[in-house]
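PROTEIN SPECIFICATION:
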Amino acid sequence: MSRRKAYYTNKIKRAVHLLFYRRHRKPGVKGWELRRALGSDYPTVLKILDKHLKPLDLQVKTVFEGEKPVGKPTLDQLNKARFCITLRGELTPKEAKMIGWRIDDLAGLATTIAYIISKKGKAPRKEVEELLQDKLPKWKVGVNVDRYIRYGYLVQDENDQLYLDWRTHTEVNQKALIDLVLSTET
């Protein structure tokens, strides 16, 4: 084995340990933590790891806080970003059921996310609950919105405004969701 290959093999192992094992409230690792543990070439290490994860239908996902950079991100922007391991593809309905979500709960989450996106990233909780009451039993709406907040898909501020939280940015392909909503005939 060449020295270069051994060098990257060890770094990939350390990257896997950092990315798969949760150490904070939020899963994943900040770029600056990866830089400190792996060195300044951590973006290269993550690209190699991503190639190894592809056959397993997993990927290294980069989540930027705030606005996504236009074009190729700078090293400074990557240092501030969060890196996580997520599914590359999609869950089948059977797999989604196995993770403990009912189909109506998932539909409510998708509706909520799409609505907040359509309102430019924020919406009053009352509006979201009124929308969901048309689709879900009334008693379940508040419970579900609280669940979406507790699980990190939404965040609520002191003015009862709902925003998309870290888990939505990490796990949900927002463009695909909006394309799906817009392509569906009612």
About this structure: The chain has a mean pLDDT of 86. The chain is about 55% helix and 15% strand.
